[in-house]
Amino acid sequence: MGKIRNFTPDTVSVYLPNGEVKTFPSEGQIRVSQEIRPLPSLCLDFNVDDTAIPVVECDYGPAEGIPDDLAEDDFLLVSTICVESLLHYDNLRGKILVPDTGLNSVVRDAEGKILGVRRFIRY
Prior knowledge:
Elements: E1 4-6, E2 12-15, E3 21-24, E4 31-43, E5 52-64, E6 75-77, H1 80-86, E7 96-99, E8 106-108, E9 114-117, E10 120-122
Parallel strand pairs: 1-6, 6-7
Antiparallel strand pairs: 2-3, 4-5, 7-10, 8-9
């Protein structure tokens, strides 16, 4: 079986059903460029101009930082923002993993800080 290779900026911890915690240290980062288009701002107070919240539309460009030494059976662990761009690479379909930070998977400490997840989402 191949390796799970982490290309998020942080170590990712997975809390397994048996109580064990597996960690995946970052090997680097896969990044995507952004094309931003401004939209009308959202006004919180119509009497004060400086309370408007900027809003944009965003398209993501090609992924950068994909490792050249990815084995046939390796998986790429990436941030959610990278998925859309990585799905354009046919050889990566089914090999893309994202930490599942949904309510039923995320593990938090008493202050609400994310410690890890219970599972990955596969694309």
